[in-house]
Design brief:
single chain, alpha+beta, seven-stranded mixed β-sheet, 11 strands, rod-shaped
Length: 491
């Protein structure tokens, strides 16, 4: 009889508890008036009766509350390189199990989920560590609760976070900014964090991203870590790495192409004759135009205190190349200008520039570089032949005698000896002196023209050599930068 009495007592207790539970539900749901048949009102009153939102919702305090979180990037609002701040608009989702928000759907017309005010339920204190400003996020006052106690808190957030931005590769840069979610107070024994989706799904999800701005979302990486501050309490954190890439088309069209065009025009300017002043004025105009261009684009370039972007170095080097080109032009113009006032070309310079350099660097022959002076020299020779400087045959004996006498007088004058008494009339003597002076002037002019022609040849050869060195430097620099930017763009 004792076992039977025990089983009877147990059955009676179960029946009494079920009756009490039913009575409690009916009592809580016994609203009158316009809420008499409102199932959601009865369910809300049932869940809020005796609920303590300030207590972690577990029956066994040793049980850790597992919070599953998820992140979806909606838009990149602003990237402030100077202040190292990233502003994004994200959809943040988190869910956890509340053991005190559980009900039987059969008691409430098969209602399996309900929305409750966020202020009336317990919410984990999970924050973003990189927050530097309060974002303008809409207030979502409700959470979803299912009949088994699963609470889902979905909300959009405008996140203003600190981020280490590397602008060296601008405008082909890829930035990696982190958003670290962790409980500010609770240790891992109270609150633990996990992902709502798999890392692979999170990485490739771009379904809600607005893909029309300056920045392109590449992927989102996740990393779970447990850390300790004082080697006593351990905390759980979930770090999301948002990897974004800048679209360089705007900066390529407005920054790189104008600079490239100016450099091409500087190279074309070398085809102007170096003995004319047009090349100097042309290159000065280019240098001034490039300076104005840098002033205009200075506001477009990102400015930071830790480094300078490579495109800034590119602009500085291009300006330096323009200055070097102008300096080379000034030197060459000075070398070939007013050659009559210069001394003869030194022997070593003539050997290096006029003999060795054309052979080594395949420069055109010297007579092709100075056709103008060659034509002047040939005209001078014709002029000498036409005036018969004692080199033609004399038709009459008397005329030849006069020619020989003039030659003797010129020889005596050249040696500094006094002339013999001329029995001829004074008119003939004056004519002889004038002819001698003219010949001396023409010989001196011929020698000056030969010196000028040599200096002009030196100037042309040096101009070709410096132009080739300048062209090689520009091409090598352009290929290096183009290769680096191409690698960064692909990566």
């Amino acid at each position: 009889m004792r076992p039977t009495s025990a089983w009877t007592t147990l059955v009676l207790l179960v029946v009494i508890q079920g009756t009490a539970r039913t009575c409690t539900v009916r009592k809580l749901g016994s609203s009158t008036g316009r809420f008499a048949n409102a199932t959601l009102v009865r369910l809300s009153e049932f869940l809020s009766a005796g609920y303590k939102k300030g207590v972690r919702p577990v029956k066994d305090w040793r049980t850790s509350t597992l919070v599953a979180i998820d992140l979806m990037v909606y838009s990149i609002l602003n990237v402030d390189e100077k202040n190292q701040v990233l502003t994004t608009y994200v959809w943040y989702r988190q869910s956890w199990t509340d053991e005190f928000l559980v009900w039987n759907p059969e008691d409430f017309d098969e209602v399996k989920q309900i929305s409750l005010p966020t202020a009336n339920v317990w919410v984990p204190d999970i924050l973003i560590n990189e927050f530097v400003d309060v974002g303008k996020s809409p207030d979502i006052p409700y959470v979803y609760v299912t009949h088994d106690g699963l609470v889902r808190n979905y909300k959009p957030i405008q996140v203003v976070t600190a981020c280490t931005l590397n602008i060296y590769n601008f405008p082909f840069d890829v930035q990696k900014c982190s958003l670290t979610f962790q409980s500010w107070l609770h240790t891992i024994d109270d609150i633990n964090i996990t992902l709502m989706r798999s890392p692979e799904e999170l990485r490739e999800d771009k379904s809600v991203f607005m893909n029309q701005g300056e920045w392109e979302l590449l992927h989102i990486l996740s990393n779970y870590k447990i850390f300790s501050v004082d080697d006593d309490d351990y905390y759980a954190e979930m770090k999301f790495h948002v990897v974004i890439r800048r679209r360089p088309l705007f900066y390529t069209v407005n920054l790189l192409l104008p600079s490239i065009f100016l450099m091409v025009m500087d190279i074309v300017g070398f085809y102007l004759p170096p003995d004319s002043g047009e090349r100097v004025s042309f290159k000065i105009t280019l240098l001034l135009g490039y300076s104005v261009f840098l002033i205009i684009v200075s506001d477009t370039l990102p400015a930071t205190a830790i480094g300078t972007p490579l495109i800034g170095v590119y602009f500085v080097v291009c300006m330096a190349l323009l200055v070097i080109s102008l300096t080379e032009t000034v030197l060459i113009v000075r070398l070939v200008h007013k050659q009559d006032l210069q001394p003869p070309v030194p022997h070593w310079l003539r050997y290096l520039i006029l003999e060795r350099a054309p052979a080594l660097f395949c420069i055109h022959k010297k007579h092709r570089l100075c056709s103008r002076f060659s034509s002047q020299t040939s005209d001078m020779a014709d002029y000498k032949d036409d005036n018969n400087y004692g080199t033609v045959q004399c038709p009459l004996h008397h005329t030849c005698e006069i020619g020989r006498q003039r030659e003797r007088e010129a020889t005596l004058l050249g040696r500094g000896l006094p002339l013999p008494r001329d029995p001829s009339p004074p008119v003939v003597s004056n004519i002889l002196q004038e002819v001698t002076a003219i010949r001396s002037f023409l010989e001196k002019r011929d020698r000056c023209n030969e010196v000028a022609k040599e200096w002009l040849q030196v100037g042309y050869v040096l101009d070709v050599l410096l132009f080739r060195v300048y062209l090689v430097a520009v091409v090598a620099y352009s290929i290096t930068l183009g290769t680096l930017w191409s690698v960064w763009q692909v990566a």
